[in-house]
């Protein structure tokens, strides 16, 4: 019997690079035990690598953030998806993204490339249903495509204003699930150092910087590691309650689900996940 993926309001975003692949089962059990609804595995994973997360848990939704279209073939991805959804019905959400022009020499025509990739998933022997996939989307046309051809959008490295914009572009029913990096640190100076260390790579990628320029940030905000205003908007810091307030602001702006990513932490962020769960999950 088909079971549709159902996301709660709050999930966790991390990567094996951050927590160590050997800690996958422990991390997934912790996330489920704390009451989070989804475990988003970032770092452009290949789909079979999510199995340990599913094996270790009973109800947790596992989502990819994101499967890169330049690194995967639609037919193989659809086959891997079919295997996992057979074994774990209703618990896998395939997040798909175009990646960054700085990351591949093949990068060209992102919108048409994504359409072609989705066509390939639809034409596979075991197609990936639209409501079991979502798209990394920032700009208006990719947001619209996410609503047309998938469950919806998973924006990354975005302020609350982008969530409001995304909701307007995708309509009332499509998924909007922004990632929210954060630093649990009450010292603004050390918190911003951690935030800038995380932000450095993204402030050098033009799909992110071009998007920020749409939302009242300037080239001066982006330069030099990011202004305090930009850093605080994209990567809030402070107590768990202060970060929870920003997550709620995303929900109030139209998000269905917020993917929390504590940064500036070595290994599995057990204390940070627990504190955020206490502040956000009833």
Averaging pLDDT over every residue, what do you get? 96
Are there runs of 5+ residues with pLDDT below 50, and where?
A: none
Total number of domains: 1
Number of helices: 13
By CATH, the architecture is named Alpha-Beta Barrel
Oligomer: single chain
Beta-strand residue percentage: 15-25%
Put the structure in a nutshell.
The protein is an alpha/beta fold. It has one domain: TIM Barrel, CATH 3.20.20.30. The chain has helices at residues 16-19, 24-33, 51-55, 74-87, 110-123, 140-149, 160-170, 188-199, 206-213, 219-222, 228-234, 240-252, 270-280; strands at 10-15, 38-42, 61-65, 67-68, 92-97, 133-135, 152-153, 175-176, 179-184, 237-238, 258-262.
Comma- or semicolon-separated keywords:
single chain, 282 residues, alpha/beta, TIM Barrel, 9-stranded parallel β-sheet, two-stranded parallel ribbon, 13 helices, 44% helix, 16% strand
């Amino acid at each position: 019997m088909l079971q549709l993926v159902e996301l709660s309001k709050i999930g966790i975003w991390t990567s094996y690079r951050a927590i160590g692949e050997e800690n996958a089962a422990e991390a997934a059990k912790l996330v489920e035990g704390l009451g989070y609804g989804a475990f988003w595995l970032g770092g452009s994973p290949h789909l079979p690598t999510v199995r340990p997360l599913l094996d270790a848990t009973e109800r947790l939704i596992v989502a990819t953030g994101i499967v890169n279209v330049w690194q995967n073939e639609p037919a193989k991805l659809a086959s891997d998806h079919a295997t996992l959804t057979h074994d774990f019905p209703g618990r896998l959400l395939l997040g798909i993204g175009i990646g960054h022009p700085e990351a591949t020499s093949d990068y060209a025509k992102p919108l048409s490339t994504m359409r072609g990739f989705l066509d390939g998933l639809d034409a596979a022997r075991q197609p990936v249903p639209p409501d079991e996939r979502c798209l990394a989307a920032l700009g208006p046309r990719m947001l619209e495509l996410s609503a047309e051809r998938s469950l919806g959008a998973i924006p990354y490295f975005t302020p609350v204003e982008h969530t409001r914009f995304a909701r307007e572009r995708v309509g009332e029913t499509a998924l909007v699930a922004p990632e929210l990096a954060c630093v649990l640190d009450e010292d603004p100076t050390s918190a911003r150092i951690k935030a800038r260390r995380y932000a450095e790579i993204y402030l050098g990628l033009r799909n992110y910087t071009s998007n920020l320029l749409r939302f009242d940030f300037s080239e001066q905000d982006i330069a030099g590691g990011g202004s305090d205003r930009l850093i605080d908007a994209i990567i809030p810091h402070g107590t768990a309650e202060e970060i929870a307030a920003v997550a709620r602001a995303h929900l109030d702006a139209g998000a269905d689900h917020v993917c929390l990513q504590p940064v500036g932490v070595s290994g599995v962020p057990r204390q940070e996940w627990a504190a955020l769960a206490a502040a956000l999950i009833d």
